Amino acid sequence: MVTIFCFPRPFIDTNKGKFKTNQENAMMSWKLTHPDTEILVFGNESGVRQICDKLKFKHIPEARVN
């Protein structure tokens, strides 16, 4: 099994929406790396819970960041 950990930036429309789209595309590509890929997404930035729900990733909102 492959496990991917990430702390994404907020999913907000900046740079004409390209950053949000690029980040979402990257996260979707992780699902294709291996059938048993486990993806853990940390943080409670804007839109993170929604993308985790959409892609069925495990969301861990209570992570501290600096």
Mean pLDDT across residues: 89
Percent in helix: 25-40%
Beta strand count: 3
Question: C-alpha Rg, in Å?
Answer: 12 Å
N to C succession of SSEs: EHEHE
Number of domains: 1
Report the structural category.
Answer: alpha/beta
Distance, first to last CA: 29 Å
Helical stretch tally: 2
Strand content: 15-25%
Largest sheet composition: 3 strands, parallel
In short:
This protein is an alpha/beta fold and about 70 residues long. The chain has helices at about 20-30, 50-55, and strands spanning about 5, 40, 60. A 3-stranded parallel β-sheet has the order 1-2-3, covered by helices on one side.
Written account of the structure:
The structure is a single chain. With 66 residues, the protein is α/β, with parallel strands linked by helices. The protein has one domain (3-60). The protein is built from two helices and three strands. The protein has a three-stranded parallel beta sheet with strand order 1-2-3, with helices on one face. The mean pLDDT is 89.
Q: Which properties best describe this structure?
A:
alpha/beta; single chain; 66 residues
Walk me through the topology.
Elements: E1 3-6, H1 18-30, E2 38-42, H2 48-55, E3 58-60
Parallel strand pairs: 1-2, 2-3
